[in-house]
Recover the amino acids of this structure.
């Protein structure tokens, strides 16, 4: 039986990083990923920020942030409510990969219900440049038993 990991948390993204290493061949077919992603999870009590820095075919670091000011200068932000994140991740877990309506591309395209932002357009463009690799990264959630804040 697998261990349950809470989302959002540093531990949860570290588990995804392990999945990325375990399935490295899938990422090598897409090419290296060199970007820093900040995941912003909006909840009634406030927002949680987690920074994931990618380098090559792996995650270089994962850390919780107190504010966006603490993020690496070169980053983009993917922001959504906890419920939106949960729906996407539960869909991935149920199907092994997202259906069309639960991909990062679909959810961010109209800036609703997910929004991609960043300090400048170049950083926002990094999200789109690495979108397929980022989707595969999140697809690792299919192997993680996830719990959510109440």
């Amino acid at each position: 039986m697998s261990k349950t990991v809470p989302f959002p948390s540093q531990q949860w993204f570290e588990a995804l990083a392990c999945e990325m290493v375990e399935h490295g061949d899938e990422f090598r077919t897409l090419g290296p990923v060199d970007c820093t992603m900040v995941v912003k999870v909006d909840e009634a009590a406030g927002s949680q920020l987690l920074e994931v820095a990618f380098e090559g075919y792996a995650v270089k670091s994962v850390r919780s942030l107190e504010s966006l000011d603490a993020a690496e200068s070169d980053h983009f932000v993917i922001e959504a409510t906890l419920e939106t994140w949960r729906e996407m991740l539960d869909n991935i877990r149920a199907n092994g990969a997202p259906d069309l309506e639960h991909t990062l591309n679909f959810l961010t395209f109209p800036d609703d219900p997910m929004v991609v932002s960043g300090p400048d357009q170049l950083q926002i463009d990094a999200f789109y440049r690495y979108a397929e690799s980022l989707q595969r990264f999140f697809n690792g959630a299919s192997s993680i038993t996830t719990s959510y804040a109440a």
Remarks:
- Residues 23 and 140 are 9 Å apart (CA to CA).
- The first helix runs from residue 10 to 22.
- The chain has six helices and seven strands.
